[in-house]
Amino acid sequence: MLKVAKFGGSSLAGAEQFKKVKAIVEADPARMCVVVSAAGKRYKKDNKITDLLYLTHAHINYGVSYEDIFSMIEERYYGIRDELGLKCDLESEFQKLRGELNQDISVDYLVSRGEYLTAKLMSEYLGYAFLDAADCVVFSYDGQIDYEKTYANIAARAEMAPRFVMPGFYGALPNGRIKVMTRGGSDITGAIVANALDADIYENWTDVSGILMADPKVVENPKPIKYITYQELRELSYMGASVLHEESILPVKEKNIPLNIRNTNRPQDAGTMILETIDEKLVQNKRLITGIAGRRSFTVLTIYKKHISTDTSIIRETLEMLETCKVEVEHITLGVDSFNVVMPTAQVQDRIYDIISDIKRKLKPDRIKMDDNIALIASVGRRMVSVPGSSAKLFGALGAQNINIRMIAQGSEEISIIVGVHNKDFERTIRTLYDGFMNKEGGNEA
Question: Which of 37, 57, 135, 255 is the most buried (most CB within 10 A)?
Answer without folding.
Answer: 37
